[in-house]
Amino acid sequence: MRIFLSFFLIFFTASILKAQYSPQEFANTISVEDLRKNLEFIASDSLKGRLTGSEGQRIAAHYIAGYFKENKLLPVVKTDSGNSYLQQFYCRSPYGLNYQVLYDITKIRNPKNIITSHNVLGFIEGTDKKDEILIISSHYDHIGQTKQGIVFNGADDDGSGTVAVMAIAKAFSKAKEEGKGPRRSILFLTVSGEEQGLLGSEYYTEQPVFPLVNTVCDLNIDMIGRFDPHHKKATDYVYLIGSDKLSSQLHSISETANQTYTHLNLDYSYNVENEPNQFYYRSDHYNFARKGIPIIFYFDGVHEDYHQSTDDVEKIDFNLLQKRARLVFYTAWEIANRENRPLVDSNKP
Predict the structure, then answer these.
(1) In the chain, which ranges are E strands?
(2) For the chain, does the N or the C end have fewer beta carbons within 10 angstroms?
(3) How far is CA 81 from CA 74, 77, 84, 346, in A?
């Protein structure tokens, strides 16, 4: 009888501990209210489209940094005055066409038209696997255009991804505060310069704060607040791009997370070989993929307001944004806490 009771108590205690570590209670902190509040600021007229190097972009950077600080994420960018949330970089368009990242401005003979910009980094340190880094990324810049006083606010592109990253960071911070933090460390990376050619993510991958060899994958969110014409009758979807390009394990983790928790239609239409839009190469995850780091790109497709002045907060489907953000959270939770990092397939380039 005593042996039976002992086994029962062990099983019961293990069951309680497993329940306590369920990610759902933390996923539930990703709320419509929080997403809306942050997006109403990020995509407001006052930021004038968040063009890379503009005052609006700088205001957005400090807002995101303030949110990271409020939610107890760590600043990890070393500066002369201490650690910062902001990773500064420089770029310019020397011929008025293509922008270039500048890695050493002291060697530039003609320093005119150099643009200063920032990535924003917030860090949650892991427990027993803290040297391995999961990155969750988005770009917070937009095209910055105005026409007849109307601002191109980029609420979906990529205000939606930015506020999702912020909300996911808050959820993981809450878990850590309750003693249930991730085993692996997580870097929440919002970059600038995407619209000018993936500049901020290029800079991070060339000047990483943490060694790329220790970076297990990048979950990149670029536009998840709307639905496209192909899904008007069934909006409960998200496009996934790249999940199987480098790691079949990462693809399986993603599929299982969705089957277990969110039950979205995972649409791989843009993931096929020779897809004409070539979206795999067109957002910030690609700078990680080209370094051999597995990635997933979350995307809602191209709608009629893409890069138009009508990409406003009023058109965001916040319930859909919430559900997609929770999918990223659940996927990140599994990656951050599983025993082994997702392996790169041996047959991948």
Answers:
(1) 77-79, 82-84, 86-92, 100-102, 115-124, 129-139, 146-147, 150-151, 184-191, 215-221, 237-241, 265-267, 295-299
(2) N
(3) 15, 11, 8, 43
CA pair distance 141, 218, nearest whole angstrom: 19
In sequence order, which residues have a C-beta less than 8 Å from that of residue 283 and are 6 or more positions away?
A: 139, 194, 198, 220, 222, 297, 299
Domains of the chain, start order: 24-337 (3.40.630.10)
> Which tokens belong to 72?
């107890």
Q: Give residue 149's pLDDT.
A: 85
pTM comes to 0.94
3-class SS of residue 317:
coil
Distance CA(207)–CA(82), nearest Å, equals: 18
**Rounded Cα gap, residues 157 and 224, in angstroms:** 8
**DSSP output for 143-200:** ---EETTEE---IIIIIIHHHHHHHHHHHHHHHHHTT---SEEEEEEEES-STTTSHH
Q: Model confidence over 226-269: pLDDT tens digits?
A: 999 999 999 999 999 999 999 999 999 999 999 999 999 999 99
pLDDT tens across 147-167, in order? Answer: 788 999 999 999 999 999 999
